[in-house]
Amino acid sequence: MSKDSILCVSYFDTILGPNTLYCNSTLNTKEHPDLGRILEFSDEEGSFVFTFRKYQTINHIFYIDSEYARGGKEMLMITYLIRAAYFKDEITDVYNYLLSKTPDLETFASELKDFNGLTELLHSHKNRTNHKNTLSLASKKFKKDFLNIFNGYLEKLTPQIGITSHLLAKEDLKKVYVFGPENAGKTTFVKNLEVVQFLQYKNNGMKRDLANKIYDFLIDNIEILTYECIEDDINGKSVKLYEDCLDNAQGFILIFNASNKDSLKETIEMFRLVLNRCLDKGDFMPVLIIGNKFHDKEEITPDLIYENFDMDELAECGLLMQYFSIDVLSENEKIIEAIRWLLKQII
Fold this sequence. Notes:
The chain folds into 2 domains: 5-157, 2-Layer Sandwich (Beta-Lactamase); 170-346, Rossmann fold. It has 12 helices and 12 strands. The chain has helices spanning 35-40, 93-100, 102-113, 118-122, 140-157, 186-203, 210-220, 243-247, 261-281, 302-307, 311-317, 332-346; strands at residues 5-13, 17-23, 46-52, 55-65, 73-83, 175-179, 222-224, 230-232, 238-241, 249-257, 287-292, 321-326. Strand 4 (55-65) and strand 5 (73-83) form a beta hairpin. It is elongated. The chain starts with a strand and ends with a helix.
């Protein structure tokens, strides 16, 4: 089965937290939604669509009566993930397709409610540690019976078509790149965008209005610069961004440790790479600069930020820059405000 089409069953353990019963493909949180996070923020039965990066999902939360669970009920979630590349119109076609699969998820949930021995398996961890595949602890007969049902629904959910449009070549993809010094919070920032995205859905009754769709599009195209875009110098320091990454950027998010002046110095050096490119080619692109606030540490003031960037050169290039001081782990409203600024500059 193609990895473009993935089915997972997860559940919430009152001691261990979110856990995976079974998934037909290994999930990578850099590419896929963090199902544990979604499960942590959800407790209402029903189905909802959630989109993140390359994959779009339809999720169904349901409860099973259990003599082993606190409160007498187990909370489970069935998630079907699919790459938007299956569809020509990613915004409408994939959304409507996923919604059309709600009855299949509901029927699958009904079968799991009646599946003998399931609740006992969910509490069979002898050492009470998380498993990425709790099904591996089951008997051979249980596995066989479960997978017969599971694979049947995976086949029902998977589109009986090939990918209808070719993915853009890598050199044609437009991205908003996140970069900055090590341990500044880049990965935390990108992962928290997923949580913010889901909470926006939940607070709006899971409605995907135009504002949410535009937000989705931007989030789906935010990416941390990887080794493919960074060249190491002789001393092993990442100092040069490959030109093709700069050419394909529609914006940059530069994150540094707001409590560390050395982090700021390194950030300024990285910013010069973007500024020099802009001066050489006359490219316009917005740069969002985030000073990540860490608890118990004094943050660098905004005045100090602007004093250390050459505003005259910025004006000459037509490069827009905005600074936000944010705890990227917890200050969701400020993150949304920062992303809105970036979005306004791009569109």
